[in-house]
Specification:
This protein is α+β, with helices and mostly antiparallel strands. It contains nine helices and 19 strands. Strands 6-7-12-10-11 form a five-stranded antiparallel beta sheet, covered by helices on one side. The chain has a four-stranded mixed beta sheet with strand order 1-2-5-3.
Length: about 350
Amino acid sequence: MMERFLDIDLTPYNSFGVPARADRMVTFDSREELRELLADGEILAGRWGVLSGGNNILFTQDFRGTLLHPVGKGIEVLSSDVSRVRVRVQAGLEWDDLVAWAVERGLWGLENLSLIPGYVGAAPVQNIGAYGAEAKDTVEAVELLDTGTLAPLTLAAAHCGFGYRESVFKGVLRGRAVITAVVFSLGRVPRPSLGYGDLARETAALGGPSLENIRRAVTAIRRRKLPDPKETGNAGSFFKNPVVERSVAERLKERYPDLPLYPAQDEAHCKLPAGWLIDRAGWKGHARPTVGVHGAQALVLVNRGGATGTEVLGLASDIRRDVEERFGVRIETEVNVW
C-alpha cells in the first residue's frame, strides 16, 4: 500500500535509535506499485535511498531526499517437489518471520540465520550470514526494479556477485536497483550445518540436529551474545571479519596462539575474527556517556541513551584505529553510514 510521509522522524526506523529526519518517505507494496510511484521522475530527480528495516544503517545526519520503504510481506510457493520448494517472498517481510515459516514447514536452509534482524529485501544486499550459512546458499533469484529504465528485472543468484557481506547491489547496482522480492530454494532433505562448536553443543543439548532444535540453539546463542535493539539501540555486528593473506595470519598466530583462524575465499587467505581483535585490544565493555561496546560481544556497538550517529561513528573510528595500530589489520564497517 502506497503512503507518503513528509518531514518524518527516523528514530523509530533505525535500530540504533539515533535521531534523524527525512524530507519524505514513501512506502510501496509491489514492483508494479513502485514503478507507478517512480514513473513521473520527481523522486528520482532528487536524492533517494531504500530504507528497509533500518537494522544495518547508521544515520549521522538528516536525509535530504526521499526514502523508499518496502511494506509487502507476502510468501508464495512457486513450485514444490520431493526434494525442494521454491518460494517467492516480498521485500518487506521480517527476515526471521521467513525463517520461522520455513522451519515450521520442515524446509532446510535458513535455520542457521535465525533471529537476524531486518527485512527479506535487505538479505541479498548484505548477503547476511551466521554460523556457517549465508543468504546466497538459498537465494535463487532477486526481483528488482531498475530505476534507470523503470524496467522490472529478475537477477539470477549467479549474477548477484555474492561475497562475504557483499553483492552487486552494494557495487555496480548501488543507487540503481530497488529489490521488491526474493526467490529462495529450500530443501526438504535434512542437511544440518553445525560447523561452529557452540552451535553444535547447544543443538546436542536440545536433543540433536532437528530444524527446530537448530533454530532454538541459534536463537538462544544470539540472545545471550547480542542485545535486543528494542531495548538497547544497536545494529548487530558493526564490523566485518577481516580477510588477510595467510602469511599475515600465521605471523599473528605466532604472536597470539589463541587467535582463531577461519577459511576464506581461497587457501592463500584467512579470515580473522574482528570480535577477538577488538576484545584483545581491550574494547569489550568500553563505555562512554552515550555509546559503548557491548559487554558480551565486542563486535556490537550500542546506544547507551541519547547517542547521535556521529558519536557512534566516532567510537567505531577509535576502535578501528587502535586495532590497526596493535595488529596491523584494518577492520571495515559492516553497517552502512548515511
